[in-house]
């Protein structure tokens, strides 16, 4: 479970987050929408312990990230907009390296190829250098690393930006598979359609505040769009 409790973050004189509270239960996909600079990435970075909150607390599975950073890191996997991999290594070799770094264990080739397949990578590409991969293929290696880690929470920062519609759709299905395994998923996105299709909950952020938090079942796509635009223009 991911929890933000009245969390604020001030950078010098900029209040990037203002008393934000949210909760993502196991088996939920929480999609955070908001204009550029609304504070979405800052919130994700607090869960990753890349930043400290100015006040309030973020928790992963009930543990404070500030007080238990190592245990919390074990529980989460992170997929940024651009997955950083070693270009001179193959997708398989990257997975082998990062999976053993994350888990402290070696995995068989069969297991790792199985994870790449589960993440949707064509097995024929597994032994090709990552420098020849498309963005979507790199994302799939990122997903395979997250699967190897068997993380209880998944954090994603604009994971579908720059993916073509069918790759974005495929990526959404992977997130749904993680949700079905009981993972708590928090993702930022600018794509309202993706949020409505994929999210179980949708949050709208504006100037550091969470101004809406709703169940995606309770709102149509057109009403979500109207609500979003109303907040942005207010
Ligand atoms: N390290 C930093 N130092 C100073 N200000 C920062 C820092 N990181 C973020 N900010 C500011 O905090 C605010 C929130 O930024 P954040 O990156 O969280 O927004 P965002 O909602 O993720 O935006 P985008 O959709 O463009 O990715 C912005 O005004 C940004 O300029």
UniProtKB/TrEMBL annotation:
Molecular function terms, GO-annotated: ATP binding
SMART domains, sorted: AAA (SM00382)
Cross-referenced PROSITE patterns: ABC_TRANSPORTER_1, ABC_TRANSPORTER_2
Gene3D superfamilies with a match to the protein in the record: P-loop containing nucleotide triphosphate hydrolases
Residue stretches making up the ABC transporter domain: 2-232
InterPro entries per record: AAA+_ATPase, ABC_transporter-like_ATP-bd, ABC_transporter-like_CS, ABC_Transporter_VariousFunc, P-loop_NTPase
UniProt entry keywords in alphabetical sequence: ATP-binding, Nucleotide-binding, Transport
Protein name listed in UniProt: ABC transporter ATP-binding protein
Organism: Pendulispora albinea
């Amino acid at each position: 479970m991911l929890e933000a409790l009245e969390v604020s973050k001030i950078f010098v004189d900029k209040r990037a987050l203002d008393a934000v509270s949210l909760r993502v239960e196991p088996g939920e996909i929480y999609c955070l929408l908001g204009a550029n600079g609304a504070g979405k990435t800052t919130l994700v970075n607090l869960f990753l312990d890349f930043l400290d909150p100015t006040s309030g607390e973020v928790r992963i599975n009930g543990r404070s990230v500030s007080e238990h950073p190592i245990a919390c890191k074990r529980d989460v996997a992170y997929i940024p907009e651009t997955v950083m991999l070693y270009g001179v290594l193959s997708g398989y070799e990257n997975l082998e390296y990062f999976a053993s770094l994350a888990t402290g264990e070696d995995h068989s080739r069969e297991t790792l190829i199985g994870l790449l397949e589960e993440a949707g990578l064509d097995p024929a590409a597994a032994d090709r250098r990552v420098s020849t991969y498309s963005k979507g293929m790199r994302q799939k290696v990122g997903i395979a690393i997250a699967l190897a880690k068997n993380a209880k929470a998944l954090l994603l920062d604009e994971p579908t930006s720059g993916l073509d519609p069918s790759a974005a759709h495929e990526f959404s299905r992977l997130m749904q598979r993680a949700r079905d395994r009981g993972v708590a998923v928090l993702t930022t996105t600018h794509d309202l359609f993706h949020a409505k299709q994929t999210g179980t909950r949708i949050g709208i952020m504006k100037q550091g505040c969470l101004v809406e938090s709703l169940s995606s079942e309770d709102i149509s796509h057109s009403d979500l769009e109207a609500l979003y635009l109303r907040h942005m223009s207010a």
